[in-house]
């Protein structure tokens, strides 16, 4: 199957302007390659500062790109003129985390959903109310809500409106940027179920940007884990989550909150090992889950070598890690960018 | 275990369009010394307001309604004003919130902020307080050096700032720490570190902790008991392991069914239908019954509190037949 979306060596630099001297540009995304097929969900996973949202925005040309190519159904997205791009935008839509900021507070729900139809001159104006009602029904909303304003809706209802609005123009790819992380658990489950249902019905391709691995496991076919702008591991969802090769992926999984971890607290967790860290470590030898330490967003970014090396708990850490940037290579059932991942067994 | 805090019929009122509404409505619970208790709920459940009400910090125009009682080892906190109340806040009960940047002063070094808190509560000179502040920085895993002392909030990462907040909350050696979503703004790897730190501090200092959170995932394995709030009320209270293994209230069972899992067999999510009602719109009787698959005629009446198992209570008409859904 050929991919609907194909991204190659995408690189994005943020030019930081210093007060006196121009600062070195910050490489937010570094040679990221990925593909998404029709009916498939690829999850881009990472913590803040990983560049996952920048990748998503770059693909839709909502963000200047430094280098690389983005192909959507064979069209070179980054090279298109405005007119051709507008035609393509209809086919790739985005859903953002915060539904309240995505909706105009003065625009009724029906008008918001119909807006895309008008912009892209889709259908006959007289048929739009019926089309809007049908779309609201498809996302599980009462069509009577077309007359409501966003503030009259709950967070979950607003996110459904945003999804209906994206669906209105008949997209083939939806970029979902943290679509449920602002929602309460009970509502989050409703919206996730809707997202799964819509994919089956419409053969949608999803690029899901998310930090919550449990959410990702529920909806994604494949996962790409990002760290400081790079994909450090990628593979089928189950392979990445059950047999992660990269030490960072392992750290993320170990740190994820686990509602099934029901042993009594005094007994302590079996998943723990001490992790000494001079500046960010716990006090007096307290246990930490599997060597979890440091912070992505504030992490020191080494000038060369593996970007994860300053936080890496791998026992095989050596000079090569400090000097040579690891490329993605097959390790077990996934691809991982680590010099040593194959030398540990978990 | 000796009791540290007893909350009885705590009620918070806000003026509504048609009379007062009660986002926290007759909440009662106790905290034993040394316990870690989670107060869990979705947005609008009243969990954060409950935490604020314990220290009489409800923001205007809200107020704690008459008849509410919060007793810290016999001292009625809600009756205190001025200096005695200020002494309780900080010296007996410390608090940390979700957003450390909103609580830290950007133009005072973190060390001085800790030292000021120490001096506000303890009879110590500047030099002694400073030494103590450096020790506290080290205790929360930051550099307890003159350089570490001199850092400003903007020079620190989110996780380091939350460590500073913990140091400030503990500066006057409180017995009880109320942590309201202390890790919700942090990345997961940082969250794990802060929760581990919290547990270490609790153990080292014999603290009692009330952890207010929406995240059931951080509650499992890290707390002794859980109180589940829905629409202003505690609907279920149980030892943590018992609650996760045998959720009795349909709302708790629904929450657990809604939660995507990272481990174990992948199962379809079972969402709770509908939305959390807002305080003005709470249904009569059981406030969960319009969303509850098990509701039946009696649910339109005020549900009784029943004991499901030892130390495991719920507010539901299903009584002892209400097995996990």
Q: Secondary-structure element order of chain A, as H and E?
A: EEEHEEHEHHHHEHEHEEHHEEHEE
Low-confidence stretches of chain B: none
Rg of Cα set of chain B: 21 Å
Q: Total strand count of chain B, please?
A: 13
According to DSSP, the number of beta strands of chain A is 14
CATH architecture classification name of the domain at 3-73 and 172-336 in chain A: 3-Layer(aba) Sandwich
Walk me through what this model shows:
The complex is a heterodimer of chains A (346) and B (325). With 346 residues, chain A is α/β, with parallel strands linked by helices. Chain A has a domain at 3-73 and 172-336: Rossmann fold (3-Layer(aba) Sandwich). Chain A contains 11 helices and 14 strands. In chain A, the strands form 3 sheets. In chain A, strands 6-7-8-3-9-10-14-13 form an 8-stranded mixed β-sheet, sandwiched between helices. A 4-stranded antiparallel β-sheet of chain A has the order 2-1-4-5, covered by helices on one side. In chain A, strand 13 (329-331) and strand 14 form a beta hairpin. The two termini of chain A are 34 Å apart. Mean pLDDT of chain A is 87; it is low at 264-287. Chain B is an alpha/beta fold and 325 residues long. Chain B has helices at residues 47-54, 82-91, 100-103, 110-121, 126-139, 146-149, 158-170, 188-205, 216-219, 240-245, 250-258, and strands at residues 3-16, 19-32, 36-40, 63-64, 69-72, 75-76, 93-96, 176-180, 208-213, 225-230, 233-239, 305-309, 312-315. An 8-stranded mixed β-sheet of chain B has the order 7-8-9-3-10-11-13-12, with helices on both faces. In chain B, strands 1, 2, 4, 5 and 6 form a 5-stranded antiparallel β-sheet that branches. The longest helix of chain B has 18 residues, at 188-205. At the A-B interface, helix 6, helix 7, helix 8, helix 10 and strand 12 of A face helix 7, helix 8, helix 9, helix 10 and helix 11 of B.
Outline the secondary-structure elements.
The complex is a heterodimer of chains A (346) and B (325).
Chain A: E1 5-14, E2 26-36, E3 41-45, H1 52-59, E4 67-72, E5 75-76, H2 82-89, E6 92-95, H3 99-102, H4 109-119, H5 128-138, H6 155-168, E7 173-177, H7 185-202, E8 205-210, H8 213-219, E9 222-227, E10 230-236, H9 237-242, H10 247-255, E11 272-273, E12 288-289, H11 319-323, E13 329-331, E14 334-336
Parallel strand pairs in A: 3-8, 3-9, 6-7, 7-8
Antiparallel strand pairs in A: 1-2, 1-4, 4-5, 9-10, 10-14, 11-12, 13-14
Helix pairs in contact in A: 4-5, 4-6, 5-6, 6-7
Chain B: E1 3-16, E2 19-32, E3 36-40, H1 47-54, E4 63-64, E5 69-72, E6 75-76, H2 82-91, E7 93-96, H3 100-103, H4 110-121, H5 126-139, H6 146-149, H7 158-170, E8 176-180, H8 188-205, E9 208-213, H9 216-219, E10 225-230, E11 233-239, H10 240-245, H11 250-258, E12 305-309, E13 312-315
Helix pairs in contact in B: 4-5, 5-7, 7-8
């Amino acid at each position: 199957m050929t991919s609907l979306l194909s991204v190659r060596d995408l690189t994005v630099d943020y030019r930081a302007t210093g007060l006196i001297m121009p600062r070195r540009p910050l490489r937010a995304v570094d040679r990221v390659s990925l593909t998404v097929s029709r009916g498939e969900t690829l999850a881009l996973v990472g913590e803040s500062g990983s560049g996952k949202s920048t990748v998503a925005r770059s693909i839709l040309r909502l963000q200047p790109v430094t280098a690389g190519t983005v192909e959507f159904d064979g069209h070179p997205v980054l090279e298109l003129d405005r007119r051709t791009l507008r035609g393509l935008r209809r086919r790739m839509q985005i859903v953002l985390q915060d539904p309240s900021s995505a909706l105009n507070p003065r625009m009724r729900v029906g008008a918001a959903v119909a807006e895309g139809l008008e912009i892209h001159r889709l259908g006959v104006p007289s048929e739009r109310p019926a089309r809007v009602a049908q779309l609201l029904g498809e996302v599980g909303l009462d069509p009577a809500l077309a007359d409501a304003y966003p503030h009259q809706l709950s967070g979950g209802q607003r996110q459904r409106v945003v999804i209906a609005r994206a669906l209105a123009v008949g997209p083939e790819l939806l970029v979902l940027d943290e679509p449920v992380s602002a929602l309460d658990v009970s509502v989050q489950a409703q919206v996730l179920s809707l997202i799964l249902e819509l994919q089956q019905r419409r053969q949608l391709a999803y690029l899901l940007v998310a930090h919550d691995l449990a959410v990702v496991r529920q909806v994604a076919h494949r996962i790409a884990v990002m760290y400081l702008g790079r994909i450090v591991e990628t593979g089928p969802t189950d392979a990445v989550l059950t047999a992660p090769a990269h030490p960072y992926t392992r750290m993320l999984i170990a740190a994820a909150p686990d509602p099934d971890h029901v042993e009594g607290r005094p007994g302590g967790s079996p998943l723990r090992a001490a992790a000494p860290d001079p500046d960010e470590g716990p006090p007096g030898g307290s246990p930490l889950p599997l060597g979890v330490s440091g912070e992505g967003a504030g992490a020191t970014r080494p000038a060369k070598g593996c970007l994860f090396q300053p936080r890496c708990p791998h026992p095989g850490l050596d000079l090569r890690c400090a000097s040579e940037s690891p490329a993605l290579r097959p390790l077990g059932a996934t691809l991982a960018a680590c010099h040593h991942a194959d030398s540990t067994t978990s | 275990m000796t009791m540290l805090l007893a909350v009885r019929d705590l009620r918070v009122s806000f003026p509504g369009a048609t009379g007062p509404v009660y986002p926290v409505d007759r909440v009662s619970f106790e905290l034993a010394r040394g316990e870690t208790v989670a107060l869990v709920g979705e947005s609008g459940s009243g969990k954060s307001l409950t935490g604020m009400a314990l220290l009489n910090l409800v923001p205007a125009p809200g107020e704690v309604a008459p008849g509410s009682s919060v007793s810290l080892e016999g001292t009625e906190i809600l009756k205190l004003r001025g200096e005695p109340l200020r002494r309780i806040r900080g010296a007996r009960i410390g608090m940390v919130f979700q957003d450390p940047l909103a609580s830290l002063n950007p133009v005072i070094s973190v060390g001085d902020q800790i030292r000021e808190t120490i001096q506000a509560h303890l009879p110590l000179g500047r030099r002694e307080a400073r030494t103590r502040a450096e020790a506290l920085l080290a205790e929360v895993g930051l550099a307890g050096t003159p350089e570490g002392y001199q850092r400003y909030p903007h020079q620190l990462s989110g996780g380091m700032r939350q460590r500073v907040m913990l140091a400030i909350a503990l500066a006057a050696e409180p017995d009880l720490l109320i942590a309201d979503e202390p890790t919700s703004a942090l990345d997961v790897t940082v969250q794990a570190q802060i929760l581990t730190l919290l547990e270490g501090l609790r153990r080292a200092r014999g603290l009692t902790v009330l952890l207010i959170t929406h995240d059931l995932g951080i509650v499992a394995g890290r707390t002794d008991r859980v109180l589940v709030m829905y629409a202003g009320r505690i609907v279920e209270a149980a030892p943590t392991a018992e609650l996760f293994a045998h959720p009795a209230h349909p709302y708790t069972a629904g929450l657990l069914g809604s939660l995507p899992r990272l481990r174990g067999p992948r199962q379809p999510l079972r969402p709770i239908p509908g939305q959390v009602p807002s305080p003005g719109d709470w249904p009569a009787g059981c406030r969960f019954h319009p969303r509850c698959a098990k509701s039946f005629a009696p649910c339109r009446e005020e549900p009784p509190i029943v004991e499901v198992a030892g130390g495991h209570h719920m507010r539901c008409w299903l009584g002892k037949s209400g097995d996990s859904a």
